[in-house]
Structures are given as C-alpha cells and as structure tokens.
C-alpha cells in the first residue's frame, strides 16, 4: 500500500491505471495502430484547415520564393495556382497572403477586428517600439488612432486649417520649379521636402526653410532609414540575426537613426510646449498635450504620454511624406507620357477658376476629370501594393479555413488594382474609366490606395488635399515635358517599401513667365 501511495493519490486512481495498463498489455498492437491513425488524422485535418500553399523547405520555409524577383509577380502566380488565400512561412512565422476584392473585404472588413494588430517583429517592436499608431496594437493603437482620426477629419471640421498649410508650402515649391527654367530636373527631392514640411506645419505649426540644418538632417535620416528597413527586413523573420557580431543587417545603424530623429523632434516639442495656449490649439502637438492633460486630470486610464507623442509625430513623417511624394511622382510620370491629359486638366482648371488665380478644395467637386486623373494615377502607380502587414492574436475561421493566431497577414492590394476582371486593360493609363458618359465622376470600390478596414489610412483627407493642390498648381503653371537628355521616363518602377518610379528627370516649362516669381 505504501508503494501504491508513492505513485497514485487514491485507491480509485490505482484501479483505473491498472486496468489501462492491462488493456495496453493485451492490445498493444491495436493501441499503436490507433495512435498512429489518430496522429495522421489530426495532421490531415490541420492541413485541411490552413489555406493551401506551395511546398516549403524546413527551417527557412518559403525564403526562396519571397526573395526571388518582383514579389507582385510571385503573388500573382501563387494566386492563380492556390486561390485568394495562400499560406506561406518564413522561419517560425506563418504568413497569409490575401488577394482579390471580395477576399480582402472578407478578411479586413468583415473579420477586420480580428486582423487589426501589427505583427510582433523587429520593425514594429524595436524600430517603432510598439508605440503610437503605425507600429502599435491594442489599447495604445486604438487610443492614438482615435485621437488622430478625430483631428484629421474632413477639412472644415478639424481644428487645423490643413488647406492653409498646403497652400503655404505650394509657393516655395512652385518657385523652386520655376527656378529650374525648363531645364532637366529631378523633382523627387523637392516633392519629399514639400510633403515633409506640410507634416511639420500640422505638427509644429510652422514650416521650415529648405536649408534649415535640423530639417535637412531629419530628411536625410528618414531617407536613410527607408533604405535600411529593406536591409533589416530579414531580421523580422529570423530575429536571431540581429544579435550576430558586427552590423551585417544594419539593425544598429537603423536604431541609431531612430534615436537621432527622436532627439531632434524632442527639442522641437520641448520648445513648442513653452508657447502652448490652451484656448488656441495651433497644431497636433497642442491638441495632443491638451487631450492628455484632460485625461490625466480626469483620472482616466490613458496611454498618452510625451514619449508616445514623439512616436506619433514620427508616424506622421513615415506615413505621410514618402507616400504622398511618390504618388505625385507617378502622376507626373503619367502626365508627361500623356500631354493631352495635361491639356484637359488645364482647361478644367481655367473653367473652374473663371478669372480667379487660386483654386480651393471646394472647387474639386466641379473638376471630375482632375479627380479621375488622380484616381487613375493612384491605381496604376499602386504605391503600396501590399499595404502594411497585419496580424491576429486569436485563431480566426475564414470559410472552411482556420488562420492561426500570430499569422502575418499580407493584403495583396496589387491583385485588385491590376485585376483584368475589374479594369479593362489594367496596365493602361485611362482616367476616363472613372468617368460616366455624361462626364461625372464614378467612384469604384476596387480603388483602395489608402487600404480598407480598421487600419485604413487616417491621413487620407490631408493626402487627397495635397494631391489636388500640387497636381493642379503644377499643371496650371507649367507644361511638363520629357527630359531633353533622357526622353520619356520609364513606366515601370522599383519595388521597395513602396513602389517608386525609377530615377528620371523632367522639364517644367512655365506656361506664363509672369505668374510665378522665383524668390
Ligand atoms: C497618397 C498618400 C498616402 C497613401 C497612399 C497612404 C496609404 C496608406 C496605407 C496603405 C496605409 C496602411 C493601412 C494598413 O495598415 O493596412 C496607411 C497607414 C497610415 N497612414 Fe497613410 N497614406 C498616405 C498619406 C498619409 C498621410 C498624409 C498621413 C498623415 C498625415 C498618413 C498617415 C498614416 C498613418 C498614421 C497610418 C497608420 C494607420 C494605422 O496603423 O492604424 N498617411 N497609409
């Protein structure tokens, strides 16, 4: 009895275990077969539950597929073979590629609340520190996103006059174009500077001189990190690589850059706080400080802090500069290929201005062709072909499949923007596809440059305003002509974090010399 008590807590348990032992001894062959069948059946049912995908190598998974050429083509081929949901893996990470208009709606709208997280990896956890909006999930993300969305609503409702900020930036930009005197010129840098300066205006209430050393430093560091994030991407899937000796994957350099930008932003925020007047919020920083103070005073559970504010301003730079500048660059590329489209926009501008010199955002409603050109540039330029990666913290059933918790979910927006089932001749630039027979604007839910669902771009009102004013002002004042040296720019680009045009120059020849005075 003593021996029995060593192994079993009570006599009942002893009896049951003895019966099982006897059964196994008598039927051990049947037990082995049954266990085998059980294991195989479970495995079969599990694979049945995950969306299909190609065979993978142990440990590295589909690295060979994702590292080969243009990922948009790879995903197109995978979709043709396996359907709208494709399972892949990298290291220990499960990946799901979601394609097609209906499936993107099913996953990111119908089941959107389950897929509103960001995956936990080097870029989000170390670079973005899981803070503010772009890299955050859960309570921090929801609170900061709500703050941003409520303060970046349609023009006229927001506290900040975005249009004034955009118009203020247009003047030095147009003067810079005029100063090129119709010679070959690459507009990339001045578009990036202008869009960054607009983020400065809405964040700090002031624009910077293009030669301001701190401003130039920030632009250079942000650009350097855009390139470094490509080099560090592999660390997202194989995290141990970060800890190899040296800085082979540029992780340390990338994190140092983040530190440098934060230090500059912190000094700007500190200076700005000294002049805060609660009755007159001037910009995002003022609005944030006031919102935070109110919540602290009311003893509310808030994640808002000065540290989060620093990251939020960083998010606006990352989310709002390169994206808008690249969209404008693609638009210029398409316009230089289509002088007849430039002339149609010009004529619409002149009719709408009707003697005035400056368009207002309210004029947009009377300018369907210009809106159609912007939409078509966003579709064909397709600058964010995979949006940003999402993730889920619990298993989610989509149709007959189960998506495991912690999957990295990639929205294949490219599959929609260039789908021949949705757009006739999708690789052609045809703004008229967004116009009805009577010339009015036809919206199309298959156009999703700002993506859809819970994480849809909160800066889209500002972005649309910038696109409208920059495109119309450039066409109002200049003929956009091909480079004398290089001819027309290429219509294909380079796929990095975003899809960008290949380096090129254009000529901006003033329509009427007297209209813009270079300073
Ligand atoms: C043409 C210009 C722009 C395009 C094409 C664009 C596109 C996008 C896309 C595709 C996303 C990812 C949505 C997702 O997570 O699936 C996004 C997110 C975001 N964008 Fe934009 N964007 C533009 C301009 C802006 C501007 C001007 C701002 C800010 C002033 C901004 C701020 C953000 C932020 C903060 C996020 C993160 C949202 C979140 O994680 O909840 N974007 N944008």
From TrEMBL:
<dbReference type="GO" id="GO:0006082">
    <property type="term" value="P:organic acid metabolic process"/>
</dbReference>
<feature type="transmembrane region" description="Helical">
    <location>
        <begin position="23"/>
        <end position="41"/>
    </location>
</feature>
<feature type="binding site" description="axial binding residue">
    <location>
        <position position="457"/>
    </location>
    <ligand>
        <name>heme</name>
    </ligand>
</feature>
<dbReference type="InterPro" id="IPR036396">
    <property type="entry name" value="Cyt_P450_sf"/>
</dbReference>
<keyword id="KW-0503">Monooxygenase</keyword>
<keyword id="KW-0812">Transmembrane</keyword>
<protein>
    <submittedName>
        <fullName>Cytochrome P450 2J4-like</fullName>
    </submittedName>
</protein>
<dbReference type="InterPro" id="IPR001128">
    <property type="entry name" value="Cyt_P450"/>
</dbReference>
<keyword id="KW-0560">Oxidoreductase</keyword>
<dbReference type="InterPro" id="IPR002401">
    <property type="entry name" value="Cyt_P450_E_grp-I"/>
</dbReference>
<dbReference type="GO" id="GO:0005737">
    <property type="term" value="C:cytoplasm"/>
</dbReference>
<dbReference type="GO" id="GO:0020037">
    <property type="term" value="F:heme binding"/>
</dbReference>
<keyword id="KW-0479">Metal-binding</keyword>
<dbReference type="Pfam" id="PF00067">
    <property type="entry name" value="p450"/>
</dbReference>
<comment type="similarity">
    <text>Belongs to the cytochrome P450 family.</text>
</comment>
<keyword id="KW-0472">Membrane</keyword>
<dbReference type="GO" id="GO:0006805">
    <property type="term" value="P:xenobiotic metabolic process"/>
</dbReference>
<keyword id="KW-0349">Heme</keyword>
<keyword id="KW-0408">Iron</keyword>
<keyword id="KW-1133">Transmembrane helix</keyword>
<dbReference type="GO" id="GO:0005506">
    <property type="term" value="F:iron ion binding"/>
</dbReference>
<dbReference type="GO" id="GO:0016712">
    <property type="term" value="F:oxidoreductase activity, acting on paired donors, with incorporation or reduction of molecular oxygen, reduced flavin or flavoprotein as one donor, and incorporation of one atom of oxygen"/>
</dbReference>
<dbReference type="InterPro" id="IPR050182">
    <property type="entry name" value="Cytochrome_P450_fam2"/>
</dbReference>
């Amino acid at each position: 009895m003593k021996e029995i008590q060593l192994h079993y807590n009570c006599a009942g348990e002893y009896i049951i275990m003895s019966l099982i032992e006897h059964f196994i001894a008598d039927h051990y062959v049947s037990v082995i077969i049954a266990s085998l069948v059980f294991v195989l059946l479970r495995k079969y049912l599990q694979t049945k539950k995950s969306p299909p995908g190609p065979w993978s190598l142990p440990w590295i998974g589909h690295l060979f597929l994702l590292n080969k050429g243009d990922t948009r083509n790879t995903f197109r081929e995978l979709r043709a073979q396996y359907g709208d949901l494709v399972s892949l893996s990298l290291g220990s990470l499960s990946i799901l590629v979601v394609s097609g208009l209906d499936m993107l709606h099913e996953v990111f709208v119908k089941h959107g609340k389950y897929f509103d997280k960001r995956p936990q990896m080097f870029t989000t956890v170390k670079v973005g520190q899981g803070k503010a909006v772009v890299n955050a999930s859960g309570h921090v993300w929801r609170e900061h996103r709500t703050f941003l969305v409520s303060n970046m609503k349609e023009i006229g409702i927001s506290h900040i006059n975005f249009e004034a900020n955009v118009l203020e930036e247009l003047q030095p930009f147009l003067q810079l174009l005029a100063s090129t005197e119709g010679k070959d010129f690459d507009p990339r840098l001045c578009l990036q500077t202008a869009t960054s300066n607009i983020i400065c205006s809405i964040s700090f209430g002031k624009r910077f001189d293009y030669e301001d050393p701190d401003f130039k430093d920030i632009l250079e560091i942000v650009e350097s990190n855009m390139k470094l994030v490509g080099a560090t991407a592999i660390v997202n899937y194989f995290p141990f690589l970060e800890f190899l000796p040296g800085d082979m994957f540029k992780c340390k350099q990338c994190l140092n850059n983040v530190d440098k930008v934060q230090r500059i932003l912190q000094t700007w925020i500190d200076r700005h706080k000294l002049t805060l007047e609660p009755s007159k919020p001037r910009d995002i920083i003022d609005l944030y400080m006031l919102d935070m103070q109110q919540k602290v005073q009311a003893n509310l559970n808030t994640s808002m802090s000065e540290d989060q504010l620093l990251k939020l301003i960083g998010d606006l730079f990352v989310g709002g500069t390169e994206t808008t500048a690249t969209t404008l660059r693609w638009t210029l590329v398409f316009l230089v290929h289509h002088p007849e489209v430039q002339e149609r926009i010009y004529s619409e501008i002149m009719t709408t201005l009707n003697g005035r010199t400056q368009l207002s955002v309210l004029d947009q409603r009377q300018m369907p062709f210009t809106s159609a050109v912007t939409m078509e540039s966003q579709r064909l330029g397709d600058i964010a072909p995979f949006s940003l990666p999402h993730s889920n913290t619990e298993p989610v059933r989509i149709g007959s499949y189960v998506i495991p918790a912690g999957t990295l979910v990639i929205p294949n927006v490219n599959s929609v923007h260039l789908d021949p089932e949705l757009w006739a001749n999708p690789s052609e630039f045809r703004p008229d596809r967004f116009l009805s027979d009577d010339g009015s604007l036809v919206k199309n839910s298959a156009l999703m440059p700002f993506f859809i669902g819970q994480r849809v771009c909160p800066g889209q009102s500002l972005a649309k305003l910038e696109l409208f004013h920059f495109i119309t002002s450039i066409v109002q004042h200049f003929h956009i002509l091909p480079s004398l040296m290089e001819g027309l720019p290429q219509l294909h680009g380079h796929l990095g974090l975003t899809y960008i045009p290949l380096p090129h120059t254009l000529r901006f020849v003033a329509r009427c010399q007297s209209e813009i005075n270079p300073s």
